[in-house]
From TrEMBL:
Residues 6-66 form the HTH tetR-type domain. It comes from the Bacteria. Pfam families: TetR_N (PF00440). This is TetR/AcrR family transcriptional regulator. GO terms for molecular function: DNA-binding transcription factor activity; transcription cis-regulatory region binding. The keyword DNA-binding applies. Keywords: DNA-binding. PANTHER family: HTH-TYPE TRANSCRIPTIONAL REGULATOR RUTR, HTH-TYPE TRANSCRIPTIONAL REPRESSOR BDCR. Coiled coil: none annotated.
């Protein structure tokens, strides 16, 4: 098997992903990314017009990976809502227990970019909208009196699980998320 060298754009994005998540979006300059990759400013700006363009690419890539993970969990559950939420909770728990976990990249980005009109916030908002729609579709087979509110609450639980996984005890995150999901969709009656 022949190894494929990543393109310069991919290398810049990979370095930015590591740095942005570990240190924060505003704390990492374009120069830090350029130094990490060992390239020039001219090369950087050939691939990304601005640092915000790089941040948007980082968040879009992160969103694609999260969507793939959530989609895989839902597919694996084969129509069983409780199983899908369990699989999603397990993924959140695994992420929270991974070395270097700093919570949700989207919540972190929103904290650093409060202007809802910024390109960064638009990516954050689009991903959150996707997540809420996905949860709404997931629970659609259930006969819930207010499915939209339930989906909104499930997203809130996911956000809380990501924060608790960073600030609290990561090993308890998945179970806490599932208890909350159970309370929302079954009224805690199981």
């Amino acid at each position: 098997m022949v190894a494929v060298n990543p393109s310069m754009r991919e290398r810049l994005l990979e370095a930015a992903t590591e740095l942005f998540y570990a240190q924060g979006l505003r704390a990492v300059s374009a120069d830090k990314v350029i130094d990490r990759v060992g390239t020039t400013k001219v090369t950087f700006y050939r691939h990304f017009r601005t640092k915000d363009d790089l941040i948007v690419a980082y968040l879009e890539q992160t969103a694609a990976l999260e969507r793939q993970s959530v989609g895989g969990a839902i597919a694996k559950a084969d129509g069983d809502v409780d199983e899908a939420l369990r699989f999603i909770g397990e993924e959140i728990g695994k992420a929270a227990c991974a070395p270097g976990f700093r919570g949700c990249a989207f919540i972190n980005a929103a904290a650093e970019y409060p202007d809802p009109e910024s390109p960064v916030r638009r990516v954050v908002d689009a991903h959150r909208s996707w997540y809420q729609r996905t949860l709404d579709q997931l629970i659609s087979p259930l006969d819930l009196p207010d499915r939209a509110t339930a989906a909104e609450t499930l997203l809130l639980l996911r956000d809380g699980a990501m924060i608790a996984g960073y600030l609290g005890e990561p090993s308890r995150t998945a179970d806490a998320f599932l208890r909350g999901c159970d309370a929302v969709i079954h009224g805690g009656r199981r």
